[in-house]
Fold:
Amino acid sequence: MAVRTRAPFVAGNWKMHLKLAEAAELARKIVEAGSGLQASTVVLIPPFTALATVGGAVAGSEVRLGAQDLYWEDQGAFTGEVSGPMLEDTGCSYVLVGHSERRQLFGETDETVARKARAALKAGLSPIVCVGEVLAERDGGRTLERIDDQLARGLGGFSREDMGRVVIAYEPVWAIGTGRTASPGQAEEVHAHIRRRLGESYGNEAASCAIILYGGSVKPANSYPLFQEKDIDGFLVGGASLDADGFVGIVREALRAYREEK
Ligand code: PEP
Structure:
């Protein structure tokens, strides 16, 4: 079996949860529980209000900071929006783009995803671009077609170099916050497809280095078999990331599967 070179990558999307003191405490617990978990990338993604606080709590550790969204202009009369340079200035290295809640509740489209991903790269941030089908698309056998559309429109025009900084998160919408997880086989089918498409567009080397995360009701109990699939490089975690032990448990399980391959 080919040994994978991509180390586990686990990001926790805290969504619209936690006031400052709670956010600081959770970040501190994760740093403490996760210390010594080398060979993995761990990213905390709190709401905008807690970015600076969480940034302070993880300073000096291996844990990285990310934001949940950005606007594509650098500055201006865009009330309520936050730009890439502002996030970079706050200590972010990553930003989610096109999360299914943004697409479903706030009208985000593949076109806005492309603009935001480009703005993130311009600001020196790595976009974590989310793609995934809704249940009707899966049941109708249109999953891969939907993913192809999202990749073509959301990442269109990116160079090979850009792609080296983009993380992709496959999140079947029917699995987000529902307790229903894609089986390892279902997830791997889509991950392998995404990697194949990246190979066709950006070359085999870019495809084999690309980080492709799975998201959708990931917990410590289901993360090990998912990570055993060769194209699943880690997880975007929602609900379970609000519990330090659960979140670090997912990182540990991914690392266990990774090390067993070596
Ligand atoms: C998410 O918000 O990206 C997510 C995957 O949520 P959950 O883990 O709660 O399904």
Remarks:
- The beta strands are 9-13, 41-45, 64-67, 94-97, 126-131, 167-170, 211-215, 234-237.
